[in-house]
Amino acid sequence: MKSSTQNNKKSFVPFVLLLITAFVISIGASFFYLKDKFAFESPFISGGDLQGREMGDENAGEPEMRLYKPKERDLPVRGGTVLRKDTLLVMVEDFIRMRVEPYRVNLLDLYLDREGVIYIDFGSEIKKNFMGDASEELNILAGLYKGIKETVPGLTAMKILIEGKEDKSFGGHIDISRPIGEEVTYNVQ
Length: 189
Fold this sequence. Notes:
By secondary structure, the chain is an alpha+beta fold. It has 2 domains: 1-42; 63-185, no CATH class. It has helices at 2-34, 43-46, 87-100, 125-129, 134-151; strands at 77-78, 81-82, 107-112, 117-122, 157-162. Helix 3 packs antiparallel against helix 5 (134-151). The radius of gyration is 26 Å and the shape is elongated. The N and C termini lie far apart (92 Å).
């Protein structure tokens, strides 16, 4: 009786190894076969729509009019009319552009979630080009919040990202790692 049980175990081990090997080979083959079918392009991740400025650029003296370059299909403008569902975000984009224009900052992304938190993703230029003190940093954040709050009625908070990631601060003074709400406007004239 023992010999038949041992023979069954001996024949079972190669069968299990064969199944595991076939499973691993099929996973590898399906990955290489299907990886292009499930790939997608994200301009936010690839950075394809960013407008970077070189220091030696011949247009360095001219101010740039847009912080980020939307795709032409996203924001067609004809006769001064914006043909887009989220016109509030377009107005917010214009306000942000005016507010941070002196710092030559690229706006990488701007979106509003269901809870009313607006996410503003700036390029790393904001850390490089900002040379102000704590009060100037507070004035920028409070001004952004107040202006966006006037434009977007359901705004609950504002979240600042730098290069798509949370950061402690852009000027080294005020913590922006958490969403910024009404409290930022209390001590600002």
